[in-house]
Amino acid sequence: MTTRRQFLILAGGAAVSGAVEAQLPPNIEALRKAALAEAVRKVTGDAQVRRGKVKLDLPPLIDNGNTVPLSVDVESPMTSADHVRAIHVFTEKNPQPYVISAHLGPRAGRARISTRARIADTGTVLAIAQMSDGSFWSDSVNVVVTLSACLEDGLI
Amino acid sequence: MARVVVNLPQRARRGEIIEIRTLAGHGMETGFRRTQLGELIPRDIITRFTCSYNGIEVFRAELHPAMAANPLIAFFTVATESGTLEFRWTGDNGFSATHSASITVD
Fold first, then answer.
1. Is residue A84 part of a domain?
2. ipTM score here?
3. What's the CATH number where A130 sits?
């Protein structure tokens, strides 16, 4: 006979696994971290990512996560021998880590992009720049979000 | 045809670095929102933006649901020669928008 306790454990497990299949549950932080790490690895391919050269600029306190202005500035002479190939922006707490991947070259003249993002919750925003010599540089900013994007009720 | 706005200088000196600011009218539905009945609203976003200068691609971006509605993308390029810049946005459900602007370089 199934006791009440066994029934509850089984039912709880079923509910969790069902949610995983539907989409990443917003309350499971480990899954989000893993998704971010996976997304970064897809870009860098196990190469070392160093801090520096990149300046990610966005407001530390965000009233409305639905439209967050951000800019990424990379120190680079932008010559054909030494330039920025790509700039990637990721967030830690969104249902998906990707925000934008911009591909530029020596004809950009200046390695800077500005855009507006949606940010779901208080957490880290990460920018990674890929240089023409194959090295990766990054910068991250911790932001506090008061009104969440993506989910109307906010995250649990 | 979606409404797009592109802002760049009409004239520039040769070799000058100019800023190009682009805005496309699009709701960028994330695919994570639900209706009142609990059904997921399917994703409908712009996935790709390209800018070419006299036929040569100078900037390209892949966009994701985490981009805000009416995506703004601002970037720089070197004014090398007079000509036209072509901007193209493509996305889900066959979305496509183009814009071209001319620049005089002296």
1. yes
2. 0.90
3. 2.60.40.2470
